[in-house]
Amino acid sequence: MGMMKFAVTPGFEVGGTLFKPEQLALLGSIIGDNAKIELTNFKQLYVEIEEERLEEVKGELTKTGLEIYPVGYVTKSLITCNFCRGAEDAGLDIAQKLNQAIAGITTPSPLKVGYAGCALGTSEPLLKDIGVVKMRDEFDIYIGGEPKSLKPIFAELFVTGVNTEQMMNIVQRVITYFQINGKNKEKFSKFVKRISITELREAIASQD
């Protein structure tokens, strides 16, 4: 049988997305000599193991609190700040709910969503495909960031001053619109440029 790949993250807590020593120790001991581990630029580890051991290994890893996600052309698990102002102020619970709603959705190209609990923006939300910034009790949403260039593209402000429910709804609508209207392998930043932020904003608003 062949090799299969999956993504691993430690989940969210105060201090950010942190692997615990016991989690890394288990990961190293269980995957075997033939496995490969790759560090990605969106705070995930890609693990490649023999297909016949896939479910066994996934099961053991989730027992330690690790989260397992698909790899490839999907929305990546939420890239968050370090919640330096504390879990409640920065919206740790909201970030967890947002991650549950968006991670692992099939998309025309890999999609990165960033979340910052305040205007410090330590998770660099303006360099993500979709960036969510908590401003006191409301949220601003940015779209179309692109870091992989000598001249990075900063995301543009999409909507401002929305509440938690509206933010969750808008982010999911944007992902769905990209699913339906994006071309195969088209980067999200190019998709936004092609259809225009104005058209995307109108399309999302028309779903009300």
From TrEMBL:
An MF annotation (GO) of this entry: iron-sulfur cluster binding
Species name: Paenibacillus rigui
Matching Gene3D superfamilies: Sulfite Reductase Hemoprotein, domain 1
Name this protein carries in UniProt: Nitrite reductase
SUPFAM superfamilies: Nitrite and sulphite reductase 4Fe-4S domain-like
Domain Nitrite/sulphite reductase 4Fe-4S, residue spans: 91-204
Keywords: Heme, Iron, Iron-sulfur, Metal-binding, Oxidoreductase
